[in-house]
Amino acid sequence: MSKSTAAATAPDATVSLINPEQTLKASKALLAHIKKAAAEPKAGKQNLLANEESTVAETPIWLTLTTKLHLHDSNRLQPSKIVLPHPLNTDEESTICLIVADPQRAYKNMVASDEFPKELRTRITRVIDITHLKAKFKTYEAQRKLFGDHDIFLADDRIVNRLPNALGKTFFKSTVKRPIPVIFMAQRAKVDGKKVPQPKAKKTKRDPTENVNARPLTEIVSEIRKAIGAALVHLSPSTNTCVKCGYASWTAEQLADNINKVAKDLVERFVPQKWNNVRNLYIKGPETAALPIFQTDELWLDDSKVVADGKEVAGVVPGKQKKESGEQANIGKKRKTLDAEPEAAVSEATPAKASKEDRPKKKAKKAAVPVSNDENLDKEIAERKAKLKKQKAAAKKAADV
């Protein structure tokens, strides 16, 4: 199993620390287990229409990355793409919906032209711009119908940030069919290393497609193919990230190639501090155990990352030092920064108590309340009771007269 022995010496290394032999070995074992599990009869209700081959072909293989620090992506609604040596979506029966910038007629003409590849044109069943999308799919029922009519959704990166408001939770409550961003806008020319501002497109009533800011047809086709076959990365603020790399019907060599490519790009592009921040890498199926292909020797990045608000003493686990000394761990409170040795830090943080002579004189407090005398109190109570009794007797005598 691969270890992170080189991680400490080469924190900025761009090479992958994964052993290809370990990846191939794990891929063979995982595929053999999935095929064996598919052949065994399962208890309970069974799908009579499904067979062993279709079950294995539809079983995805995932690469799981666990990091030492939380990952964060500000554009979580936009999946990132990793180009694979073996594309994922090669099914010719899967349908594609293109969501483009205005006007949609220009892109419809591109798809319908003879220069557009026929095998790709048959899969694109709808081309719609953002204006018509908002007008036609306002209701929840219309959005659900659009969600079910197509398998893959591609969106121009110029309008992809506006889709959550236009499509709602039907598309964005899960990552199954979130629109994949593609670049259809024409590249800007550069003069002296600076991009030249793009002239505004002029639309006329006769020809709305005139001067459309779009790339050439060949580049658009390349962008569509790249997005369809790429692995999609959905980052969330956590230490665990899963990326689909292939299917159980593939060969072990194809699956290993994709896993190595995804692992390398995932760490280099999306993980801060790269391999020093990687804890584990696994491959697994939907219902299988995770097979490790990489494990680090260091649980933490460094001592300063254990607690975000301060620093911990080198070699001391948070809370462990106090437990050994019999004191209760400081849970739920911010720990003070300890830059020196533990004894020196404690002595600096808690200085020795000053003697009575060195202490500053405090202001005189209020006179203390004298201690009560029980005998005097009882005598006073008895006198008050006698006086009250005489008053009652006098009042009763006056009332009788």
TrEMBL record:
Compositional bias (Basic residues): 386-395
Gene Ontology CC annotations of this record: ribosome
Ranges of compositional bias, category Basic and acidic residues: 376-385
Keyword Ribosomal protein (UniProt): yes
Keyword S-adenosyl-L-methionine: no
Domain of life: Eukaryota
Record's keyword terms, sorted: Ribonucleoprotein, Ribosomal protein
Gene3D superfamilies per the UniProt record, alphabetical: 3.40.50.790
Entries under InterPro entries matching the protein: Ribosomal_uL1-like, Ribosomal_uL1/biogenesis, Ribosomal_uL1_3-a/b-sand
Disordered, as annotated region: 317-401
SUPFAM superfamilies: Ribosomal protein L1
The protein, known as: Ribosomal protein L1p/L10e family-domain-containing protein
Organism whose genome encodes this protein: Lasiosphaeria ovina
